[in-house]
Amino acid sequence: MKKYILVASLLASTLLAKEKIVVFHAGSLAKPFKDIEKAFETKNPKYDVLREASGSVAAIKKVTILNRGADVVASADYKAIDKLMIGKDAKFNASFATNKMAIAIAPKAKFRDEISEKNWFDIVLKDGVKVGHSNPNLDPCGYRTMLVAQLTEKAYGKKDFFKELFGYGDHYEVGEENKKKVIVRPKETDLLALVESSSIDYLFIYESVAKQHGLKYITLEDSVNLGNAKLNSEYAKATFKIDGKKKGQSLTQVGESMVYGLTIPENKKSPLNRAGAIKFVKFILSDEGKAIIKKNGQSTISPARVTGDSTIIK
Q1: What is the CATH number of domain 2-98+258-313?
Q2: All residues at 6 or more sequence positions from 243 whose CB lies less than 8 Å from its CB, including other chains
Q3: Where would I find the H helices in 69-185?
Q4: Which pTM was predicted?
């Protein structure tokens, strides 16, 4: 018995001795980062990666406003890092992956057998149809949903589609959504259970997340899916305001093809483990890290495009 107690004690001591790496990341990175964590820890057993998923803007504000310590922040929109962190709270931004918007279809969605990339904008407006999107003030998938709706008006000549579907002006306030039509949650992955159970009919979501969860989805055309960098001049015609750094402030999000970014936060409490943070970021950007991201349905930027002080991760 004493032998078993000693072994258990040694194992516990080993676990306690591991260096923690705290990572705040976008909800859409939950599956790829879970796989990256496993691969990284297998190669680097001295580290214990602790991940916390949320909307990207919410993840950033945990560091910049709530003053929580973190080692790595990964956002579904690199611009969120540029606007909310670079300068005071971060020194570099590594653009490392891309994605595109899609519409997930519930198993028992109304008009499930009729909807297509050619008519989805008519189907979602039908009586009784419920759609979901994440909070634009907390999650890039939310404000990208707003941009997709605006681009749809231009691409298909659907005047007032945005207002008919969502009812918003140029900024979202909690509770102002048309509750008969729209359900809003903090991040897009919070809505997965609702679409999987057919509590909602359709969900504006990233294509990679739909693939990861085995959902049927509509592939949107490039003119509206924010997935083609060659169309950035067209995407830029859509804009939407989100909450800024301080109460009463706002930031204008301009349409652009999707690019994910990551950084090591720099403030009084961050990073908690600089060496570990650098090592983990380098692993994400390595060939092995990129292969895991690709396996989970996203394209990668190779090599990563680093702005700011790139020497930190060299």
Answers
A1: 3.40.190.10
A2: 57, 137, 249, 250, 251
A3: 78-84, 120-123, 140-156, 161-165
A4: 0.89
HEC per residue, 152-171: HHHHHCCCCHHHHHCCCCCE
Instruction: Identify the residue with better confidence: 6 or 305.
Output: 305
pLDDT at 12: 54
What are the boundaries of each domain within the chain? 2-98+258-313, 101-254
**Location of structure tokens 């294509």:** 207
pLDDT tens digits, one per residue of 238-280: 999 998 777 778 889 999 999 999 999 998 899 999 999 999 9
pLDDT digits (tens, 9 = 90+) for 48-94: 999 999 999 999 999 999 999 999 999 999 999 999 999 999 999 99
Phi and psi at residue 293, in whole multiples of 5°?
A: -65, -45
Please provide residue 101's backbone torsions phi and psi, each rounded to the nearest 5 degrees.
Answer: -80, 150
Give 19's strand partners: 47
Both structure tokens of 156: 């298909």
Query: Which residues have C-beta within 8 Å of that of residue 148, sequence separation ≥ 6?
Result: 101, 204, 220, 224, 225, 226
Structure tokens at 235: 């995407």
Class of domain 101-254: alpha beta
Task: Give the Cα separation of 139 and 4 in Å (integer).
Answer: 48
pLDDT given at position 8: 57
